[in-house]
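Deliverable D2.4 — example input (structure tokens):
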């Protein structure tokens, strides 16, 4: 079966990752756990680009906890592969939101895809709290630009 190429449409953001030797096993294949780390790298950089960074959220005494994660491994990534980790934020409701990801090799092969779901909480009490308006607005603005620029 030939691997899929390119992520599905609608991703406005991506960041590059080069598979480091420390992320691989004896055969030079990336360990399955590092894909979640790559998701986090993309998520933090997404927030930096579109919403002033994760620290801006923390400075206002909010945290965004990971509730669930899912990754579908399609093609193994190997040492020194150049990967593009695409991310988008969807399903923003109340305290919850979800990121979707697609990891694409530099040659266009879809290596993995997945998602993480999150809840915004008060940093001191850890009680769920509505996503701050400024963050919700920044996400909507970033994602509506995606819809208008997709072909």
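Example output (designed residues):
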């Amino acid at each position: 079966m030939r691997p899929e190429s390119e992520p599905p449409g609608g991703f406005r953001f991506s960041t590059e990752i080069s598979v480091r030797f420390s992320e691989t096993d004896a055969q030079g294949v990336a360990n399955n756990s590092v894909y979640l780390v790559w998701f986090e790298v993309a998520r933090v950089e997404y927030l930096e680009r579109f919403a002033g960074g994760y620290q801006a959220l923390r400075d206002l005494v909010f945290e965004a906890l990971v509730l669930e994660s899912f990754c579908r491994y399609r093609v193994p990534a190997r040492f020194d592969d150049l990967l593009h980790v695409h991310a988008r934020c969807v399903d923003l409701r109340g305290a919850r939101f979800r990121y979707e990801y697609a990891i694409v090799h530099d040659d266009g092969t879809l290596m993995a895809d997945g998602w993480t779901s999150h809840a915004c909480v008060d940093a001191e009490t850890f009680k769920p709290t509505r996503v701050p308006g400024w963050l919700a607005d920044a996400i909507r603005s970033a994602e509506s630009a995606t819809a208008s620029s997709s072909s």
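The two ends are 27 Å apart (CA to CA).
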